[in-house]
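Inverse folding, one chain.
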């Protein structure tokens, strides 16, 4: 193959790889936590029966100042506590991309997490 032909093949390969990467992002799903009810009490069972993948986006809809969303570890989820390293969201329309593995979310307002305002999701 002439040097010019190899250069063209490399360009085509780079373009194909770019398209594949783009298609992977297109396959990510968006889920509204709690469906029409939004991020509220008793959503702990909302993930049941759904298959989540790393890169999927969760949308948390709620009244700002009424709730928040905290991305916590399993201990924070189990004990309804937010550690100093947890990420907190407060906009009322938060979009959070799932990471591979366990993803835990709680509301830190007093009594909210203990009344079922928490979800645990395992993203493939």
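Residues assigned per position:
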């Amino acid at each position: 193959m002439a040097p010019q032909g190899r250069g063209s093949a490399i360009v085509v390969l780079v373009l194909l790889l770019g398209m594949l990467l783009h298609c992977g992002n297109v396959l990510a799903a968006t889920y509204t936590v709690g469906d029409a009810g939004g991020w509220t009490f008793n959503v702990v069972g909302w993930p049941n029966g759904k298959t989540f993948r790393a890169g999927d986006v969760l949308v948390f809809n709620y009244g700002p100042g009424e709730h928040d969303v905290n991305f916590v570890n399993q201990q924070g989820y189990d004990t309804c506590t937010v550690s100093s390293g947890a990420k907190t969201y407060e906009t009322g329309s938060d979009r959070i991309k799932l990471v591979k593995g366990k993803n835990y979310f709680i509301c830190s307002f007093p009594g909210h997490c203990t009344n079922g305002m928490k979800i645990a999701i395992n993203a493939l």
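The helical segments are 3-26, 74-79. Strands lie at 30-32, 57-61, 69-72, 87-89, 93-97, 101-106, 118-123.
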